[in-house]
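Quick review question:
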């Protein structure tokens, strides 16, 4: 039990570091700063980080910046130069770093009609390519999109690094079982999913995802606060396996052509029900948008 407690403490600290990195990618982060933030020397904490995440802090930061830049090319109309600067690169350094990581230039990536993917996401990519032929798809999504202020939420969460397509269903089932064992039913609020990565860009087996439950009061490990904010919200009611298709429809076919830009907060899935008698779930997909 003591060993499990130590591992939980290490995972908690590493998760705090990941949260800090995600919200500060536009800054010149250093391994030393991350170690100081977590009250460890940079050398020792880098070893802990690698044990949990599978890569060094420096490698993780570099990968996050390049993958976020690729995501912006896919979902925004910003120039490649502006995206490079926001990622902390000079245009020339960004060009070489991007090509080294993705195997093609940034301009080639933006012009691609298909995106790199592995077998488990071939269906998603093919679905998006077929929809691109439909000139009305933007209007259909736009008609269902609402701009809302989402109140802040206190969440208990469990983080997984996994393949969204193959592993999330089992991970959610285990999380719900753990919640039932720890909390009485009258204290169980809404379930919330937090997606950090686009599996059509990121290595599909290294996507980070938080399974969360809303609580009125909680303390201890793996508790954080989602602040009140403005989101573009889409009501989803369909089979669970259609959720990832809908996410990519919004990201690929609505976001690049709408009048909104995402900010650095993660996207949310707020679940309003479990699977009903029709096999459907009701969830609100919330994309964090910059306020004008």
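Suggested answer, residue by residue:
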């Amino acid at each position: 039990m003591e060993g499990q407690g130590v591992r939980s403490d290490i995972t908690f600290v590493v998760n705090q570091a990941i949260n800090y990195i995600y919200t500060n990618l536009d800054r010149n982060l250093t391994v030393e700063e991350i170690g100081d933030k977590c009250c460890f020397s940079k050398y020792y904490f880098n070893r802990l980080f690698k044990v949990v995440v599978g890569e060094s802090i420096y490698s993780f930061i570099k990968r996050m910046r390049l993958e976020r830049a690729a995501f912006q090319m896919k979902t925004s109309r910003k120039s490649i130069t502006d995206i490079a600067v926001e990622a902390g690169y000079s245009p020339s350094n960004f060009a070489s770093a991007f090509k080294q990581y993705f195997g093609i230039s940034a301009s080639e990536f933006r012009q691609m009609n298909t995106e790199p993917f592995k077998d488990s996401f071939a269906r998603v990519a093919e679905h998006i390519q077929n929809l691109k032929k439909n000139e009305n798809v933007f209007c259909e999504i736009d008609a269902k999109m609402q701009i809302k202020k989402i109140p802040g939420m206190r969440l208990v969460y469990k983080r997984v690094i996994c393949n969204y397509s193959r592993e999330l269903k089992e991970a959610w089932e285990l999380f719900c079982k753990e919640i039932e064992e720890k909390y009485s039913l009258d204290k169980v609020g809404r379930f919330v999913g937090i997606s950090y990565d686009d599996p059509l860009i990121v290595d599909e087996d290294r996507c980070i995802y938080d399974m969360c439950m809303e609580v009125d009061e909680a303390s201890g490990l793996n508790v954080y606060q989602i602040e009140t904010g403005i989101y573009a919200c889409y009501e989803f009611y369909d089979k669970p396996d259609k959720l990832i298709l809908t996410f990519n429809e919004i990201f690929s076919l609505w976001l690049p052509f709408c009048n909104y830009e995402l900010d650095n907060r993660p996207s949310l899935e707020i679940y309003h029900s479990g699977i009903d008698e029709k096999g459907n779930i009701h969830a609100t997909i919330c994309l964090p948008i910059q306020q004008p």
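Why it works: Confidence is low (pLDDT under 50) at residues 1-6. Strands lie at 145-150, 153-162, 191-195, 207-214, 223-226, 229-238, 267-271, 281-288.
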